[in-house]
Amino acid sequence: MSSRKIAKSNLCSLWMKTLGHLVVLSSLNPWVSAYSERERVHDLMSRYPLIDGHNDLALQLRILHNNRLSQVDLHNVSKVATDITRLQAGHVQAQVFAVYVLCGAQEKDAVRLTLEQIDVVRRMCTEYQDFELVTSAQELKNSAMRHKIACLISIEGGHSIDSSLPALRMFYQLGVRSMALTHTCNTPWAESSSKLYKVYQRHNNSLTHFGEAVVEEMNRLGMIVDLSHTSWDTARAVLGHSKAPVIFSHSSSFSICNHSRNVPDWLLKELRKKQGLIMVNLHSKFISCKDDANISRVADHFDHIRNVIGAQSIGIGGDFEGAVSFPQGLEDVSKYPALIQELLQRNWTENDLADILRRNFLRVFEEVERVSEELSAHLPSEVQIPDKEVQNPCRLDLRHPSRKRPPSDQSPSSKAQQRPTGLLTQAVVLLISSLLLMD
Ligand SMILES: *[C@@H]1O[C@H](CO)[C@@H](O)[C@H](O)[C@H]1NC(C)=O
Ligand SMILES: *[C@@H]1O[C@H](CO)[C@@H](O)[C@H](O)[C@H]1NC(C)=O
Ligand SMILES: *[C@@H]1O[C@H](CO)[C@@H](O)[C@H](O)[C@H]1NC(C)=O
Ligand SMILES: *[C@@H]1O[C@H](CO)[C@@H](O)[C@H](O)[C@H]1NC(C)=O
Ligand SMILES: *[C@@H]1O[C@H](CO)[C@@H](O)[C@H](O)[C@H]1NC(C)=O
Ligand SMILES: [Zn+2]
């Protein structure tokens, strides 16, 4: 018998003993098996740390601190569910940060407000060593090796580009790598799942000619098209038009909870055909259609979607900071391991879990980049939205440069008189929307 064989057989008997002990221990004490299960989850999530599809921390920085980053320590932020300490505890290695501005800003200063949200995410992700701003799949993977939390920037709502492809391109230059085509308002070119704002309503035209041009330009640039918040008709039209896979960054299953923000099975199947991704939203309202929910119900969404289109089409888009109620046991970003543990208990394989934690998102991102590469010979699109399709009084009419402008010598006092009402309205809108509209 060679020495190697002896070593091997010794190792074998050691294993058998250990296993024997484990079996005895776990039958004696249920805590042991629970403990080893948690260990297994942490081991799995260390190897495949989460890429989360949606987080609204930037919105909370606006609401709570008016974007004064110096007022907070991002390692430990009270009143929110997201900070560096908890992201690390939850094995979140990459976070898509939404830059979101109220629908009320459409036709007003949506572009400025969006720039300010991009600024605050960029500051967050460059001033803190634990974060790293990334703009490609490769950079995302590199940041994992450096044990950094990668930040991706995503615009939440097409109203942010004010129907302008040059504005879209400049947002790309600032690092934006995905955009949800709508939030709770229609844009002049795409339709929302919400009927809250009665703007740009139209029949049987859920993605206009200009809307198609937006999708084409996003394909050319290499920006991920996000269909969360769009109407199903718009989602179907985009799936028919996009050359690259698309995602729902934070939506769940309509069959499990019939909320209009969730995705019905027929649409999931269309998404699958395009190799797209649905990143399941954890907000209780979309999980159980009520204000309270539990992890088991969340897992029902995962099980159902896997049955319909397979684990390769699923990701996780927590929606923390964008919604008010989360399931028991999933109250903040440190709790993701509890969800993975529930799925392991439901016999999801480690392979499936590695897919939903990160590999699916990376595959989609890389495919979006590949399509962009393929389109690199195309020039930037010069499609412009027809004037009659935007009813935006803030747009200067450039065709009449010689036209006399209305007198602008308002006295300082008349300006001052206007200000309090404006601020009050803004504050009320902010308050209402933070209570009602966020998701
Ligand atoms: C975070 O700050 C709170 C007080 O603001 C403190 O009680 C808590 O221990 C801190 N947590 C960590 C992880 O530093
Ligand atoms: C919607 O428009 C398409 C083509 O533009 C047409 O084929 C279809 O019948 C229309 N549907 C309705 C409900 O009007
Ligand atoms: C969801 O289901 C409930 C009960 O079946 C029904 O009353 C409600 O109208 C449905 N909502 C939607 C958006 O389909
Ligand atoms: C979780 O919530 C569902 C309803 O959404 C309920 O039927 C179920 O019993 C709950 N499970 C646990 C373990 O509490
Ligand atoms: C998981 O698999 C085990 C062993 O095959 C089986 O006993 C158990 O019922 C399964 N659990 C679920 C939730 O499918
Ligand atoms: Zn949202």
Automatic annotation (TrEMBL):
Region (Disordered): 382-420
Reactions performed catalytically: an L-aminoacyl-L-amino acid + H2O = 2 an L-alpha-amino acid
GO molecular function, one term: metallodipeptidase activity
Cofactors required: Zn(2+)
Transmembrane segments: none
Record EC number: 3.4.13.19
Biased composition, class Polar residues, residue ranges: 408-420
This protein's UniProt keywords: Dipeptidase, Disulfide bond, Glycoprotein, GPI-anchor, Hydrolase, Lipoprotein, Membrane, Metal-binding, Metalloprotease, Protease, Signal, Zinc
Pfam families: Peptidase_M19
A GO term from the CC aspect: side of membrane
GO biological process, one term: proteolysis
Domain of life of the native organism: Eukaryota
Subcellular location: Membrane
Predominant location: membrane
Signal peptide: 1-34
Biased composition (Basic and acidic residues): 385-400
CDD domains: rDP_like
Record membrane topology: Lipid-anchor; GPI-anchor
Assembly and binders: Homodimer; disulfide-linked.
Family: Belongs to the metallo-dependent hydrolases superfamily. Peptidase M19 family.
The name this protein goes by in its record: Dipeptidase
